[in-house]
Amino acid sequence: MTNQRILSHFHESAELKIQSATVLAPHIAQAIEMMFSALSNGNKILVCGNGGSAADAQHFAAELVGRFERERFPLPAIALTTDTSILTAVANDYSYREIFSKQVQAFGQAGDILLAFSTSGNSGNVMAAIEAALEREMRVVALTGKGGGAIGKMLTDADIHICVPHDRTARIQEVHLVTIHCICDGIDVALFGGDVNE
To answer: Is 176 annotated as a binding residue?
Structure first.
């Protein structure tokens, strides 16, 4: 019984990734182009999400500031999930909804990008961050699932919505992880061309 349950997790994850590849690839390619263009122009990427999506935000920022699969200069990305003093001060003095939006207002500039994670598409503090980003003439790349929720409805035509076609949070997060790696690889290829193994 345990083995069968484990196998079902692997099979469902693999099947969703294959199904999502064709659907999401054009949107991921657009996100790579948008991010590469912003980084090339001296702009930065701000990243936010809650829970497992906070970990994804930090993972993405680490890949850009450090490296993905090849040596290169650091790229400017900031995870808005990491400064406990900011997070707790804003949550305590204002509201939890504003923990990311205050940071977008503080750090975001026109031409920057907000990479926003929300598996449900309905995270209030992520929505507030998107509102703040749009007010500052930033572009938004939103990674969601479950139909995209309210976030899908608030994005503009200039933004990119990468919505995993599934309702299970764990599966959505697994596709988000592959998406992060695709974006990091795409940025590296745009910078240097070719393949890391060439």
So the answer is: no
Sign of the dihedral through C-alpha 129, 24, 52, 124: positive
Q: Binding site annotation covers 27?
A: no
CA distance 116 to 145: 12
Q: Is 8 annotated as a binding residue?
A: no
The response to whether 118 counts as a known ligand-binding position is yes
Q: Where do the domains of the chain lie, and which CATH numbers do they carry?
A: 1-192 (3.40.50.10490)
Side-chain-facing half-sphere of 51: CA atoms under 13 Å:
8
Going residue by residue through the chain (198 aa), what tens digit of pLDDT does each one get? 799 999 999 999 999 999 999 999 999 999 999 999 999 999 999 999 999 999 999 999 999 999 999 999 999 999 999 999 999 999 999 999 999 999 999 999 999 999 999 999 999 999 999 999 999 999 999 999 999 999 999 999 999 999 999 999 999 999 999 999 999 999 999 988 876 554
Task: Tell whether 112 is in a known binding site.
Answer: no
Is 131 assigned to a binding site? no
Tell me if 51 is assigned to a ligand binding site.
Answer: yes
Is 119 marked as a binding-site residue?
yes
